[in-house]
Design brief:
about 290 residues, Jelly Rolls, 13 helices, 10 strands, binds 2-oxoglutaric acid
Length: about 290
């Protein structure tokens, strides 16, 4: 089966060993120097770090995306690193299941009924899915990309989908299906697929309500089991303007995206990145790598 067929059928594909052991170990070491207990390394830091931004030049990811979309793709400037993200669902006592196209669902601006989404999320995992019982990857609710695609054919479908998504966010985490990713693997997933951070037994036991401050619990996660994952969006060039204009920046403006150091901050690249600068930066990194 090709990536495209697999992606349409399951709503995600895994690229095994897209990064070698020395590559992911080096990335882990670099990230460790940023990991002071915060949840996110923001895009401006990832882009300006020559060790971290190399992730964007991975050829297997580019090829898989071209295979899925059958055309050239652009990377959105939201590349960031999530650190120990499993702590979020435990902290809020929810499974954390969600879709990434939530603002598309609210605005109904984006074609949610098409076979392929306008853009996908890309996750690069620097530890195995189990990660010593802490959880290192993601789980999904299988076929939810098709459910949303189907429901959104009707006027009321987006509202109903929104309701279902909110309801399932409260579903216990054992409802999800684990994607067995390993260190150096990449998962590309449909923005309509429900997914969440994998929450291992050890993390759950350690994190579930106690009076100890949340920050102390995060600090207690051993170095070897700290979860690191890169995330960014990508989609066909021809949809870029539409997504940026109507969907992407809707997130900047929406009330629930109020800046917090713990959340992905869309403002950082709204201020700093003009889309072309961002694409040029990636091209520059790629060419300097070729000359090294
Ligand atoms: O790796 C994780 O914790 C999941 C992140 C996630 O769900 C997302 O970025 O949409």
């Amino acid at each position: 089966m090709t990536y495209r067929e697999d992606f349409i059928k399951n709503g995600y594909v895994t690229i095994k060993s897209a990064f070698s052991k020395s590559e992911y170990q080096h990335l882990r070491k670099t990230i460790l120097s940023y990991d002071k207990g915060k949840r996110i390394i923001q895009p401006n830091n990832v882009i300006s770090d020559q060790h971290l931004n190399k992730v964007l030049n991975n050829k297997q990811i580019k090829d898989a995306l071209i295979n899925i979309f059958q055309e050239e793709v652009l990377y959105y400037p939201n590349i960031h690193i999530q650190m120990n993200s499993f702590t979020q669902s435990a902290h809020h006592s929810m499974s954390g299941l969600h879709i990434d196209a939530s603002s598309e669902l609210t605005s109904r601006r984006c074609a949610l009924t098409d076979t392929l989404p306008r853009w996908v999320n890309i996750g690069v995992y620097l530890q195995d899915w189990n990660n010593g019982g802490y959880g290192g990857g993601i789980m999904i609710l299988p076929q939810t990309h098709k459910l949303i695609r189907f429901l959104c054919r009707w006027e009321w479908g987006a509202k109903l989908s929104n309701f279902i998504v909110r309801l399932l966010r409260r579903a216990p985490d054992f409802c999800g299906k684990t994607i067995p990713s390993n260190s150096g693997d990449v998962i590309i997933f449909d923005n309509r697929l429900m997914h969440a951070s994998l929450l291992g037994k050890k993390a759950k036991a350690m994190l579930l309500p106690s009076h100890e401050p949340h920050q102390n619990k995060i600090d207690a996660i051993p170095e070897h089991y700290r979860k690191y994952a890169f995330y960014w969006f990508a989609g066909p060039q021809r949809w870029w303007e539409e997504v940026i204009e109507f969907n992407f920046y809707a997130r900047v403006l929406s009330d629930d995206q109020v800046f917090s150091e713990d959340a992905f901050n869309y403002q950082t690249f709204k201020q700093a990145q003009h889309t072309q600068d961002w694409q040029q930066q990636i091209a520059k990194n790629a060419s300097s790598e070729r000359h090294d």
